[in-house]
Amino acid sequence: MKVCSSIVFFILFFAIFSVTTFSSTVGVSPGKIDLGNVERRSTKLVNFYIITPSNETLLVKLEIERVNLDNIEDKIISNLSEEDITSWVKIMNNPVELKPTNNTLKTVGGLIKGQKQISFLIEIPKNAEPG
């Protein structure tokens, strides 16, 4: 049986990762990652970027935690499991040093002065609930 996973990235990010910074702005890109259909007993490598408008070097620590999604589930995901998936996620590099670069990007959301690719693995166990 397939486990159908269409994970909306900001839910994944805010449900699993907690970013610790001191009076600095940190965001993520892209805002959504669709994993498509994933099988039980499979592992999926997922990449995204942490971005910042800061001129300072930031040390960003990613932490796995479970968050209550009761107010969001119907609007974002129609088939949401309540199973705790925090043990399924393995962060590849942690903490991450986010340095400003010489190439500033202008976006609709503002300036991006630093970015770093983040990779993590999602290991779907054999007894995972569908959804």
Describe the structure.
The chain is mainly β. The protein is built from 2 helices and 10 strands, in the order βαβββββαββββ. Strands 3, 5, 7, 9 and 10 form a 5-stranded antiparallel beta sheet that branches. A 3-stranded antiparallel beta sheet has the order 2-6-8. A hairpin with a 2-residue loop joins strand 9 (100-107) and strand 10. Mean pLDDT is 77; it is low at 1-21.
Average of the residue pLDDT scores: 77
Structural class: mainly beta
- What is the helix tally? 2
Quaternary structure classification: single chain
Shape verdict? elongated
How big is the Rg? 16 Å
Largest sheet: 5 strands, antiparallel
Distance between the termini: 11 Å
Residue windows where pLDDT falls under 50 for at least 5 positions = 1-21
What series of H and E elements makes up the topology?
EHEEEEEHEEEE
Helix content: under 10%
Counting structural domains, the number is 1
Strand content: over 45%
Number of strands: 10
